[in-house]
Amino acid sequence: MNNKNYRIFFAILSILPIVKPFTEIKCPTEICKCMRINNTENSAAECSDMITEVPHNIISLKIIKNDLNLTSQTLYSSQNVLFLDISGCNLSEIKKDTFSIMKNLQVLNLSNNKLTSLAFEQNLHSLTELYLDHNDLTSINDELLNLTQLRILSVSHNKLISFPSNLPRSLRFINMSFNDIAHTIQNPQFDGEILDLKRNQIECIASQGWNMINLKVLRLGDKVKTILIDATDETIGLTEFLSSARNWIERPKMDGATQNILKKMLKLTFLTLDYYLIEDLKFLQPMEELNKLILSYIKVDKIDSLEGFDKLQKLNHLDLEGSKELTSLILDNIKSLPIDESLTYLGLRNTELKQLHLQQMPGSFFIYGTLHPDIKLDLQDNILQCDINICWIFLQMKESHLIKPKFTFCTDVENKKSNKIRPLLENGLRSRCLETQFRTTYHKATTEQNIKYKQPFNKNKTTTTDIIVLVIITFLIVLLILIVCLTILYLYLRFKKMHMFLPTSNLIQATRLQEIDHSTEDIHQGQV
Question: Where are the strands (E) in 43-120, listed by range?
Answer without folding.
Answer: 43-46, 60-62, 83-85, 107-109
